[in-house]
Sequence to fold (181 residues):
Amino acid sequence: MKRLMGIFKWNTNKGAIASNKILIGAPDGPCFRNIATQLEHPVEWDSIILHIWPVSSMRIQAGATSYAFVNFLGKKFHALATVSDYKPKHTVNWALSGDYEMRIYWQLEPKGAGTLVNITLAWQSHNWLGDFSLCRTLQRKRVERLLWRMLVRLKNTVEKEEAAQIAEKMVAPYFVEGKLS
Fold:
């Protein structure tokens, strides 16, 4: 917990962490591409980042920044998103600062023909409700469900893209100049 909260000036009495993971039946490349591009353009499967405006001219890498319109725990707000760690096909982490201080950690690990995707979200509220541990417990359970739904939508998106690419590779040799041969 200290590693996750050490990035901000966290008040550990107000901070909380939730995580979830899923096995996606696709290689790590397509999974990572879908995750890493979240800070360049909005993706359908992400229900936290609703809209994004890249600020820095560099592509997604450590130090890249974007302004984001975020929906978190029923509250919509603008935040500055900064990529803090980037290792292609393995890790991408960013911080969001706005009404909540948030860190989002994505880790990918190849598992057989698929990829194990793990997301951890650490957040700290700036309001008085963050002082109550019961409130933090309820928020954590709510965020764990939110992360699960997001991961299922990511899985469906990536596996659908992979199936389309495989089908295209299988059918392409039979087409010559747009006609079935």
